[in-house]
Amino acid sequence: MEMVTVGVVGAGSMGSGIANLAAMSGFHVILQDLEEKFLQSALGRIDSFLVKSVSKGKMTEAEKAEVMGRIQVTTQLEEMKRADIVIEAVIENMEVKKSVFARLDEIVPDHVILATNTSSMSITAIAEATKRPERVAGMHFFNPAQIMKLVEVVRGYKTSDETVEEIKAFSKRLNKEPVVVKKDTPGFIVNRIMVPQFIEAIRLLEEGVASAEDIDKAVTLGLNYPMGPFALQDYGGVDVGLHVMDYFYEEFKDSRFAAPLLIRQLVRAGRLGKKTGAGFYDYSK
User: Fold this and answer.
1) FRET partner for 207 with CA separation of 20 to 30 A, picked from 75, 237, 256, 265?
2) Residues catalogued as catalytic
């Protein structure tokens, strides 16, 4: 079945980015969140991204207006009944995600794919909240979704081959490069590799081996990464990083994934990264 309308549940940074991406790719988009203020903030972020695209000559004002015109916002989850695929991008909390998927399962037609943008959590567990686990899969975009090329297509235990192929084809229509994660494992591919790097960087800082600035410089210049581990954690949210570390440790019971005390102290102090003005770095100035 041809996909025409994309539903996105959750209008935060990732949800608004996915909605923006889908609209730029020619899809009609239904973007849902619990409150109107979240939706208006999302529309503001989308408009800001498109304004920059116009200023760089990547699109015209008329094309920008067309993209914005393809996005419908709503506080009613029932509006997802018109979507051909639904992508969930709510908070990284398993119980919240299960609740959303259980409701979506009742709302949308049986053939519709329900995808989750979770960065680490079990697709199998989320899928079991529905009566269509074969039509549930991970579709993990990276921030910012409009720019980052990768999409991790993650199989749950019961995800069908047909569902995986449809999501791969859909990803390519979004001008993304899909990779298939064949086993439902915490962190999939990228975070499974990246989170231990974050942990080791924090341990180096705790041990006084080098400053955060010099560790970031060493990684960006020595490994040719675009951002160092501390700048990246501040960008994504220090609290998000701690949550993922704790989830990994709970799933694997492996000390490799034990969160260092420093990151826990930062979260307790409210230093959650750029969004609060301070994390590993201080952005107040």
Assistant:
1) 237
2) 119, 140, 152, 191
